[in-house]
Structure formats: C-alpha cells, structure tokens
Amino acid sequence: MKITDEHVATLRAQLSGDTDEYARRLDELVSTETQATYTTLITAAFFEAVDRRFVINGKTAGDREIIDFVATKREINPIAAERLDPVIAEQVLAHALGKGSIPGDIDSDTLMETQVLLLAALIGEADLSESELEAFLAKARAEADEHLD
Amino acid sequence: MTGKAPITISDLHVAALRTFLVEGTEVWLKQHENLLKDETDFGYSLLLYAAFTKAAERKFSPLYSVPQLIRYVADHRLSLEEHADELNPRVAEKLLRFALGDEGLNERPPFGMDPVSVARAEMYLLMALVQEAKLTDAELEEFIKDSAVLANEWAAADQEQA
User: What is the pTM of this model?
Assistant: First the structure.
C-alpha cells in the first residue's frame, strides 16, 4: 500500500496542531495496513525533519547539539519533559543521522511516541510557511513511498 | 529474619566523604574501594546520599522548577563532553527532584533503573554541586558535618521503624 492523500492530510493536521481534525482523521485510519503505512509516513517525515535541522551544508551536527536540542525541548514543554526520555530521544536522533543504533530493548510504541514528539518539536521550531509545509509533506510522502510496496 | 542491625555513620565514612570531595574520585576510589564493595555497610551510602541531598538543597531550595533541573543536568552532561553518556539524565533529574521533595514525583530511587547508574548519577551530581558551591575549607567542613548529622537522623528514624 502506498501513501494516500488521507495519510498526508492526517499528518498535515498533526503537524499544524489541528488536534480535532487530526483525531478525526486518525480514527478513519482503521485497518492495520493503513495504520502501518501511516507509521511509515511519520518515520519518513521524522527523518526529513531531522536532516533539515541537523545537517547544515552537508555537515552533520554532533552529540552536543543533540543533547542540547532534547534538553531545550523538554525544558520548554512539560509534556515533552514527562514523556520524552532524553536517553532514548538522543539515541533516536543520532540514529536518524546515521550515528549509532537504537537499542533492541526499546519497544515499537516507545519508538513511535519518541519520533512523534520529536517531529512535533522539530516542525514547531522550523515555523514553516504553508508552502514550505506542503513541500515538506511531499518530500516525506515520496520518501515513505520508496519504502512501501 | 526479624530486626536489623542499626545503620551507623562512622569516622571512616566521614573521612571517605571528605576524600571524595577534596581529593577527587581517583584518590577516593583508591583509598576507600573496600567501603564501596561492602554491601552490608549502609552507613556510607546513607552519608553520601545525605551529602547529595544537602548539596541539592543548597543549590536549588527553596525555589526551583523542573525545567531548571532539566537544564542543569543537560549543562552538566555537556561539560562531560565525550563522557556525557555516563550520566543518565532521566535518573539525574529524578534524583534531584526526589532530594528536593518534589511531590509531583511518584517514584523513589532507584526509579526502576539499574542501581549502578543511580549511584553514578548521585556521585556525579554531588561532585558538581559541591564544586560549583566553591566552599571555603571551613564551609566544606560544615557541609560534611551537616551531612553526617542528617545521615544520623535518617539512621535513627530507620532504627525506630525496625
């Protein structure tokens, strides 16, 4: 299954902070297959957002920037402070930058929640215009489609 | 088994704490390794924890916020450079919150974590807090004495409950 317009609309609502629309659309992703496909889109968007933030002129950020980023987001957001485990968040970010691996004892729900929280933080900070958000979503969709049958 | 041996804070414990704070981790490990290995000697770990609590209170009480603790721990990890991973930030934040009596924290040490990470975080933070306080020799002696008094109070309370 490839990414559909519905998947993209769901992610758009999620990233725009339109919580009612997001909740409604998420409920409509009923089948296991469409949910798994949406997960692939989130992961693609996450990788894209990490590259955007942490790879500047071909240079990948170091551990210090990752530690500082996670701490700053947890400092300013009580939900992130509580739900984002800094060790896991740093590992997930480093992994997305091609450094290190994600320990096997991190379950898939925790991994997904970490990606979602970090994605929200990255997009919030990027403060994208409407057209930039559309370009971002198109890129994430293309990237996700490459990994889907 | 009923009853338990009372926990005592000995002069040796106090001397070991002083070595740690004044001469640093390496000398401390060399001189007092046996104390750390003795799993029946709770007095020493109680004294270290009392010192940690005193140091945390000195730095953060009476007014602090969780974001402030998050930043404090992150800055300390950044200062550790390539050893940043040796201090688990989640553990460090919870240790500070617990020591400061944060009622929003519904957990106690070791917070379901590996006790070695917890002990290591406690030592890292204790050292950092004391170094930053830039105590004079007299103030440091006072700090060590106050820590021993607190540890003895806890030991006495523990004995009453036994």
Answer: 0.89
